[in-house]
Amino acid sequence: MIWLTDETKSLIKELESGIDKPLMQKTWEEMMEIAPIHSGSPEEEKAIQYMKKRLEEYGLDCRIHSFEAYLSEPKHSSLKITSPIEMKVQSTPYRQVGSTGPEGFEAEMIYLAPDEIGYADCRDKIVLCEQKTSGDWMGLRAGFLLRLQNMGVKGLVVIEQDDYMPTVCHQRADFSVSGSPTPENINDIQTIPAILHISNKDGQALRKLVKQGGVHAHIVSVVDTGWKSIPLLETEIKGTVEPDKFIMVNAHVDTPPYSPGVVDNLSGDVAIMEVARLLNKHKDKLRRSARFVIWPGHEIGRYSGSTWYNDAFWHDLRHGCITSYNIDSPGADGATMFRDIQITEVMDVAQDSVVAVQGKGVEKFRWATRAGDGSFWGTGMPHMSITTSRPPEDYDPHVNYSGGGWWWHTPYATMDHGDIDILEMDVKAELNFVTRMMNCPILPYSFTKYAEHMLEILEEMQGKSEKVRAYFNIYPVIEQAETFVELSKHLDSAIEEKGKGLSEDEIKQLNTNLMWVSRHINPIVHSNAGPSEQMTMETFGALPFPRIAEIVDLANMTLHQSHEFKLLKNKLQRQRNIVEEGFYQANNLIQQTLAMLE
């Protein structure tokens, strides 16, 4: 139930009318003068100090945390074909640990098609390959790269898949681990000496040459990897009724290598400062708190800022944070519509916020993924982001945001690709969402649509695995998920019927219960790690129920009683227990809550 009091409705109107476009434009332009802003650089420190000064001018008290992060900053690369002809090909280095040093090396270059990567012999070779690989929507990352490393590949030249704008290279990364590494996962970061990226246009021409055989190339890739101290900015506006409960509004300050980052994410930094400015002007009207956090280490630190914050303030987040709201890539030129909303327990609040701004909601919803510093699934809190998007005819399908603009992660992300009117629309949606989360007396969580989607996913997963159901199945999980759907419907109805008649103490207890239903469900749906650990980056967080998703791999094994089959079955059995328990605890708590509401 989204319960807006008359006072909150008036507050939202005041907040919307208070948006200062000239101020945002001035701030945006001044931050662009600092860009590019690489983590660990003087420019990052300057940007953080600039934002701190601005927020303090708005009456907020700020803190800067400094911490050590493991960063990999690409410096420069070169690619020269030495035989059978001589030619130079423009390139950029991947954001990855490996480095050739300034001298580089020469080796034979071969081409491998997507379905050959990780299978065909490549020892001591430079492999020319496609960015889009077989079965991996994010391209060459994690498992693929480790496999190639173990096979002895000397270097990779990756052809950009973007044929929408075939003359650009988008800065990409291997995303092997989340945040700064530990002894347990440091070896998951591949160390191939050279991974270069070339444009789609240049790649098409080079592929024709390499397929003929006999090609040698000289390759240089210089990446600066190491531990650096980086700053994280934080401020908070305290609520007047439930100050211990807060929404965490966050954005990253650093821009991609070689990119001014006009909407990735300087526009997001402008937006978060404007949201903070306006809410602080009306802080006496806020029920819960708002915590604003500016992440460093997003682009070249594997989300090291948000993962450090999760580590440093885990207990606070686990017990106090009602939602992580991420602001990334607002205000993109041509982004006249709102992007699909993530499927979570706060999706109705997001849809309601979009309707409030543009008069209609989005038509499609998408699974919540790891992108956008979603480093908090282990705590169990919901994650949400609302931002505008370019329409399909103007959307480059090969980018991973900036509103869908072709300039994403390129040197062309300049001020002409930002639009202050679009940014105003984004800020209105953000104010609507944040204020609803802060001020609805009863937390506006609704698990029904979320639960129905979970059940569909689980049933599809089991349907693909019927072949092995006698040996392993997820029917116990599906049964718990079916119960969760029905109980969620009853909970929504009971809150709608009884919620406004509850006392303040009863409302606070109901809110606590809703938070803990969320805490039981989200980790089993989105994470395969412990409560204070980070989930794997192998699927970039796009895989639902990652603990038990390998049931499909089990079903695809040829020999049902092989050694490998038995190993995976044992793993799945243990992981299924965790997923089933999460549903069980959530269902039990909803039943207790329903009894309380009777």
Looking at CATH, the homologous superfamily of the largest domain is Zn peptidases
Instruction: Give the CA-based shape.
Output: globular
Number of domains: 3
Q: Give a count of the beta strands, DSSP E runs of length 2 or more.
A: 16
- The count of helical stretches stands at 15
pLDDT averaged residue by residue? 95
CATH architecture of the largest domain: 3-Layer(aba) Sandwich
Low-confidence stretches: none
Structure characteristics:
single chain; alpha/beta; Aminopeptidase; Glucose Oxidase, domain 1; two-stranded antiparallel ribbon; 15 helices
Describe the structure.
The protein has helices spanning 6-17, 21-34, 42-57, 142-150, 200-211, 262-281, 304-312, 314-320, 347-358, 420-439, 448-463, 475-498, 504-526, 551-555, 563-597, and strands spanning 62-83, 87-89, 92-93, 105-111, 126-130, 155-159, 194-198, 215-237, 242-252, 288-295, 321-326, 337-338, 341-342, 365-366, 383-384, 388-389. By secondary structure, the chain is of the alpha/beta class. Strands 1, 2, 3, 4, 5, 6, 7, 8, 9, 10, 11 and 15 form a twelve-stranded mixed sheet that branches. It has a two-stranded antiparallel sheet with strand order 12-16. The chain has a two-stranded parallel ribbon with strand order 13-14. The protein is globular, with a radius of gyration of 25 Å. The mean pLDDT is 95.
